[in-house]
Amino acid sequence: MTWKASSLRRAFLGATIIAASIVDPRGALASIEVAEACATSGGNCGNIQTGPNCCPSGQFCQPWNPSYYQCINKPARCSVPEVGIDYKGQDLINGDVTGLKLPEDCCNRCSSTAGCVAFTFVNIGWDGQPHCYLKSGTGTKLSNSGAISATVTSSTASNHIQAKIRSGAAKSKAVNLGGWLVSEYWMSWDSPLWTGVPSTTAWQGEYNVMKYLGKTKGTAAFEKHRQTWITEADIKEIAATGMLNTVRVSVGHWIIRDATTSPGTEADMFAPGGLKYLDTLINTWAVKYNIAVIISLHAHQGSQNGFEHSAL
């Protein structure tokens, strides 16, 4: 850390700096400042005004709140975090993760998430809660007091069954997650989704079901269906068979509407919200239970074959 020679800086830092004055050979008054030694492991290492002090090797200065920073161990799978730095931009879709308490948790989530190579963790976010922002790169590095950013150095992805299948070290043994993110009445006839929908309409596919129910009622019906038709318990049970290592999930072209604000198209007729379930499947359940995922574009724009599963 570089210290500026100024009386204001010395007064601000108080006891953390020892100041002395000497006369150099040319007769000019010079000021020498010596920063204090690094904080000890677990010790106080600064605050929002002084900024982070150095910590022992393998540790970093964690901002717990504006008045207390502490030296703690760096995340095992990530680089030593940059404190007070925000990796601005390059956020993953649905990459704002809440419910994590430590940079270590954020690092672990990033290391097990497809496409994530860096993160920014904020202990006190806009809503007063911790936020973990997963990123595809380091973006633009900006100063942001309280932010902690780092890159992944050890990803769990290379040990996942998906990597083994791609390398040829293992064979894919799959089962379909049908009727979930693309509705198919013939296999999901007992879902609450179809309550009040005439069977003649149900057989015509998702587009016509949404036209019949209307945007508000239809969106609520499809949300309930997606919440319950396939759950984490199903993925756990699939993994527990010991014979299956892959799931195939069908999606419709409209799923990308969750990630765009472009002008409306026919996709606007469909119920939004499916992308978050696909994201949970790939980046949470499949990682947790070591299951590979195949995404099948089951319904193309305009309906590729006029059948129910392509939404007519």
Question: What can you see in these coordinates?
Answer:
- By secondary structure, the protein is an alpha+beta fold.
- It has two domains: about 75-155, Hepatocyte Growth Factor (3-Layer(bba) Sandwich); about 160-310, TIM Barrel (Alpha-Beta Barrel).
- Helix content is about 25%, strand content about 30%.
- The protein has helices at about 5-15, 105-110, 160-165, 185-190, 200, 205-215, 215-230, 230-240, 275-290, and strands at about 15-25, 30-35, 45, 50, 60-65, 70-75, 80-90, 90-100, 120, 130-135, 140-150, 175, 245-250, 290-300.
- A five-stranded antiparallel sheet has the order 7-11-9-10-8, covered by helices on one side.
- Strand 5 and strand 6 form a beta hairpin.
- The longest helix is centred in the last third of the chain and has 15 residues, at about 215-230.
- It comes from Phytophthora nicotianae (Potato buckeye rot agent).
- This is glucan 1,3-beta-glucosidase.
- Keywords: Cell wall biogenesis/degradation, Disulfide bond, Glycoprotein, Glycosidase, Hydrolase, Repeat, Signal.
- Its EC number is 3.2.1.58.
- Measured distance between first and last alpha carbons: 64 Å
Shape: elongated
CATH superfamily of the largest domain: Glycosidases
Largest sheet: 5 strands, antiparallel
Succession of helices and strands: HEEEEEEEEHEEEHEHHHHHEHE
**Structural class by secondary-structure content:** alpha+beta
Rg over CA atoms: 27 Å
Strand order of the largest sheet: 7-11-9-10-8
How many domain units? 2
The averaged pLDDT comes out at 80
The percentage of residues in β strands lies in 25-35%
Low-confidence stretches: 1-35
Q: What's the architecture of the largest domain in CATH terms? A: Alpha-Beta Barrel
CATH topology of the largest domain: TIM Barrel
CATH class descriptor name of the largest domain: Alpha Beta
**Helix fraction bin:** 25-40%
EC number: 3.2.1.58
Organism: Phytophthora nicotianae
GO molecular function: cellulose binding; glucan exo-1,3-beta-glucosidase activity
Catalytic activity: Successive hydrolysis of beta-D-glucose units from the non-reducing ends of (1->3)-beta-D-glucans, releasing alpha-glucose
